[in-house]
Specification:
This protein is of the alpha/beta class. The chain has a single domain, classed as 3-Layer(aba) Sandwich (Rossmann fold). The protein contains 5 helices and 3 strands; from the N terminus they run βαβαβααα. Strands 1-2-3 form a 3-stranded parallel beta sheet, sandwiched between helices. The longest helix is centred in the N-terminal third of the chain and has 24 residues. The radius of gyration is 18 Å and the shape is globular. 15% of the residues are buried.
């Protein structure tokens, strides 16, 4: 896909921002059809990073791409999700404020809370069996399983 074709005319050099929102990189791929969840999240991250690089390589400096990856936000969509000390449920205003700050400064990647990045480090350090145990016993996996099987989950959609 050539992004340049959808950008404002070259003479319009006002600062522009593109924001893409997805989940933080999952610490582990969630079970119970987690492949679809993980694939969609990684697709957004890959697409936005590719667009960012394409713009940079084309010398388009007035358009910036920011990928925002918040953990659960208290929007009603995640009612019933449980937080942990390192992964609190975020307030929507906090997510918007952090995303806005990054967009205004030209930041390319925002992960909220920053403790999510610990999971990336752990991926390279802990054995697969430990990662599988975490996947089976963490709040996100349990929540996704409950959501998928609840009357309000995806099976109730037309």
């Amino acid at each position: 896909m050539y992004v340049g074709a959808s950008l404002p005319a070259e003479h319009d050099l006002r600062q522009r921002r593109v924001a893409c929102s997805t989940s933080p990189r999952p610490p582990v791929s969630p079970p119970t059809h987690g492949w679809l969840y993980a694939a969609s999240k990684w697709a957004v991250i890959g697409w936005s990073d590719s667009v960012r690089l394409e713009l940079k390589q084309a010398g388009v400096e007035h358009v910036k791409v920011t990928t925002v990856c918040p953990y659960y936000a208290n929007t009603g969509m995640f009612d019933g999700a449980k937080s942990t000390p390192l992964l609190p449920i975020l307030g929507p205003a906090h997510v918007v404020d952090e995303a806005w700050k990054a967009m205004c400064s030209g930041g390319s990647f925002v992960v909220l809370p920053s403790t999510v990045m610990l999971s990336e480090v752990l991926k390279g350090l802990v054995p697969i069996g430990v990662r599988d145990f975490i996947a089976d016993n963490t709040a996100p996996s349990a929540f996704i399983t409950r959501w998928r099987t609840s009357p309000a989950g995806p099976s109730s959609r037309p």
